[in-house]
Amino acid sequence: MTNLASSIPAIEMQKIQKVFKNAAGTFHVLKGLDLSLAQGEFVAIVGKSGSGKSTLLNMITGIDHPTGGNVIVNGVNVHTMNESKRSLWRGNNLGIVFQFFQLLPMLTLQENVMLPMDFVNKYDFDERPKRALELLAMVGLEKQAYKLPTTVSTGQQQCAAIARALATDPPVIAADEPTGNLDTKSSDVIISLFDHLVKSGKTIVMVTHDPSLTERTSRTVVISDGELINETVAKCFVNLSHHQLLDLTHNLERFNFSPGSSILTQDQSVDYLYMIVSGEVEISLRNLKGKRLTITSLKPDQFFGEIELTGSGRSLANVSASTETPVCLVGIKREKFLEILKNSHITEDAIQNVVRLRLEENRSARQKLTGGKP
Description:
Elements lengths: L8 E14 L2 E14 L3 E5 L6 H9 L6 E6 L2 E2 L5 H11 E4 L11 H12 L7 H11 L15 H12 L6 E5 L7 H16 L3 E6 L10 E6 L2 E2 L2 H6 L5 H9 L2 E5 L4 E3 L7 E7 L2 E6 L5 E7 L4 E2 L1 H4 L8 E4 L5 E7 H10 L1 H25 L5
Parallel strand pairs: 3-8, 3-9, 6-7, 7-8
Antiparallel strand pairs: 1-2, 1-4, 4-5, 9-10, 11-18, 12-17, 13-16, 13-18, 14-15, 14-17
Helix pairs in contact: 3-4, 3-5, 4-5, 10-11
């Protein structure tokens, strides 16, 4: 689904903070976020109500201002411009899809789609109505083009809002809960349209409360209490709560290994559960004659060390970085890992299933090395 058109980030957020002050006190909504999104990605931002996901999106669009940090979109520092320049820049570079559509009720759908073109003076005046009709046809609304928003369904209003977001052919689309008020069929139409746009080269950032939609995006960013959860942790432990995932994120340590280097040796003490961020890890055994047999290879968002941490504490096999690429790992110490299992029975069951499968792989590999002997 991903179409990474360039190595230059489409969006880069550096140490973003947002603090609100009122009579009740000071509230830190965003707490120093770092986030980089590649061009051509379809990214879902998820989190519970009040986690800061809509505020994060508003930082990208320039609708809201950070208390600290930088937001860079396609090489432009969004918040160094004055409001007038930022509005014109936004009109040319960002398409915004609002949760409640924000269509002007006194204008037809065609006229609503033409508004961004009028605002930034893009395309010849006589060309704008034709382009608006083409965009409405793309979202299946060619027969409703001359109707007012109140005379069409909510799903059609949202499709019209997406057509409007594409009016100036912006490289980035920012959508805030675009399916939040729609039925399943209408939601599917919207996400299919987004998928098509990503394949054509657009970058889409979508805030959503619906976890099922993340199955159709190329990347999911999880925010909790104004902080980003490590993406590798979120993929490895899908059954944990956001609070638990954030706790793990705070306790991570990072490890880097060059191609072919040893990570663990057989019978070595294991003190961490390791999760693979990038690269590939090989698990192998050696017999007394030095013959090596690869048991399995592990890829990003998989983990290892769970057998040892729930058992003897010593490595049952050799673990090394693939000879092809470097390996980046994150790890949590034994005590934190065992705490997870204690506090999440679903995760404990899932880990035990992995342990059983890997022990069987290990047993089969040992029999091959010893000529079939147990």
